[in-house]
Design a protein that fits this description.
Blueprint: H1 5-21, E1 42-47, H2 51-62, E2 68-71, H3 109-117, H4 121-124, H5 130-143, E3 148-149, E4 152-158, E5 170-176, E6 179-190, E7 214-216, E8 230-234, H6 238-249, E9 254-258, H7 276-281, H8 287-299, H9 306-313, E10 318-321, E11 326-332, E12 335-340, E13 343-347, E14 349-352, H10 376-379, H11 389-392, E15 419-421, H12 427-430, H13 440-458, H14 460-469
Protein name: Oxidoreductase
Keywords: Oxidoreductase
Pfam family, one: Pyr_redox_3
Length: 485
């Protein structure tokens, strides 16, 4: 937690002064809509109170869109992965990440860090500890007075276009600690992270294992229970390496990492696209080029971070096995037995670092109208040498991260233009501006610009009526005297 309360207080005082200079928060100008329950419908409902949700909330407040609410299923202070399922010691990006500052120096991670640790500490910082990043986000929420409603899970999205008069609104079925609440909103933004377009990806055969014998890296894992155990970790991505290290540090007897490829990937090609031109310009490219960019990066296979692999190397109980695709899994003699490309492996517990599924039909809140949502397979047909079934399942989004209807579904699914996907599944359409920290400011600016335009257009006739009726005089008649000559 922050050490220098005086330095932090000074930063907060300066930030608030600068926000006053910017007339923050701006006065609400949006023409509201009444919900069927008689209350004002939300202009925007944000699902997810992590960095993307917080940045969007701040941007809306700056633009005078004040009628919004943020819902997050996690307890307060545990939004996002940083102190739950993220298990690296530090962020993987360099320390110069600015954070969701939206152009304000006082809101950057560095400003917060120097205020709490002292200016001289910055030079000695290598990479940002993940827990410290979470402390920064907690402060961001607090200092900007962003009202996140925690312990609230989204169960269902109903377009609500029926006889109840809720045309143009969504009905959100929310669960807060077991209590149901229905909320009506004009726009819904799903700022829901990495596993929110189909859940996690698990290999065939895992369903035959007892549930207590395996976990995905996205899940809560009791590493203390792995002490003295033999562990297999499947996968070579960053999360696989970090979870393997956590198991060893918790006292696992051995950890064997199984990698399908014949060698460990050594390159993270996506480091080559972290610059403003790509983040801002990618979404304007032709479909073929967007496809080629992302497929090139994925086909190169992403190397685990060097720091993560060195963390593993320090443990004599770590073993790396390349060329080891899994052919089958079953229980024998109270152990998980995996048949691989290099023979049999036995384990007391298996951790799958196998990434995330892309399957809209498996996302509960989207499943009722999943067949209406346009996917890349509905919009683009790659050449034979660039086929990729996973990429074809990505959503094909509009310029404001809005879902688009499949061809022929435009009339019945017009509501999709008000449902926005601001998470990792937007990457093929928009670049990593709604999931990875370096692009978060770009993505937030793009989304809030779209929302503001849409809300103004929705009230265009009322705004025109107001303009026609505007009669506040500039001159009061006492500014001059009539000449008598």
């Amino acid at each position: 937690m922050p050490k220098d309360n005086a330095g932090l207080a000074q930063l907060e005082q300066q930030l608030r002064r600068h926000l006053r200079y910017l007339n923050f928060p701006a006065a609400n100008w949006v023409k509201g809509q009444t919900a069927p329950d008689g209350r004002a419908a939300l202009d925007v409902a944000i699902i997810g109170g992590g960095a993307c949700g917080l940045a969007l909330a701040f941007a809306l407040m700056r633009e005078g869109v004040q009628n919004f609410r943020i819902f997050d299923r996690s307890p307060e202070g545990q939004e996002g992965p940083w102190v739950t399922t993220a298990r690296m010691r530090t962020l993987r990006s360099p320390k110069h990440l600015t954070g969701p500052n939206l152009g304000l120096p006082d809101l950057t991670f560095r400003a917060w860090f120097e205020a709490t640790e002292g200016a001289g500490a910055w030079e000695g910082l290598d990479r940002i500890p993940r827990e410290q990043w979470m402390d920064y986000l907690r402060w961001y929420r607090k200092v900007l007075e962003i009202p996140v409603e925690n312990n609230t899970d989204l169960r269902r999205i109903d377009p609500a276009c029926g006889a109840d008069g809720a045309g143009g609104l969504f009905r959100l079925a929310l669960d807060r600690d077991g209590v149901r609440e229905d909320v009506f909103a004009r726009h819904v933004v799903l700022a829901t992270g990495r596993a929110a377009f189909g859940g996690v990806a698990l290999p065939d055969g895992v369903s035959g294992l007892p549930r207590e014998r395996y976990a995905h890296t996205e899940e809560d894992i009791d590493f203390g229970a792995l002490t003295g155990k033999s562990i297999v970790v499947v996968g070579a991505a960053a999360s696989a390496a970090d979870n393997a290290a956590m198991a060893l540090e918790a006292g696992a007897r051995e950890v064997r990492m199984l990698i399908r490829a014949p060698e460990v990937p050594r390159l993270n090609k996506f480091k080559g696209i972290v610059y403003p031109g790509y983040m801002r310009g990618y979404c304007a490219l032709e479909d073929a080029l967007r496809w080629q960019f992302l497929k090139t990066g994925l086909d190169a296979r992403v190397a685990p971070p060097r720091a993560s692999m060195l963390r593993l190397k320090a443990h004599p109980g770590f073993h790396l096995h390349t060329g080891s695709p899994i052919h089958s899994m079953e229980m024998q003699d109270d152990q998980v037995v995996l048949q691989t490309g290099r023979g049999e492996r036995r384990a007391d517990f298996v951790i799958f670092g196998t990434g995330y599924a892309i399957d809209v039909t498996q996302q509960p809140e989207l499943a009722p109208f999943a067949d209406d949502i346009r996917l890349w397979r509905d919009a683009y047909h790659p050449p034979e040498d660039q086929q990729d079934d996973t990429l074809l399942r990505y959503p094909y989004l509009g310029e404001g991260f809005q879902f688009l209807p499949k061809p022929g579904h435009e009339e019945r699914a017009a509501f999709l233009e008000r449902l926005h996907l601001f998470n990792a599944a937007a990457t093929l359409s928009h670049a990593p501006v709604s999931s990875d920290i370096p692009g978060i400011n770009t993505g937030t600016e793009r989304l809030v610009d779209h929302l503001v335009k849409a809300l103004f257009k929705a009230g265009q006739h009322e705004h025109l009526t107001d303009f026609i009726a505007f009669d506040e005089p500039e001159l009061l008649g006492d500014e001059w005297e009539e000449s008598r000559e």
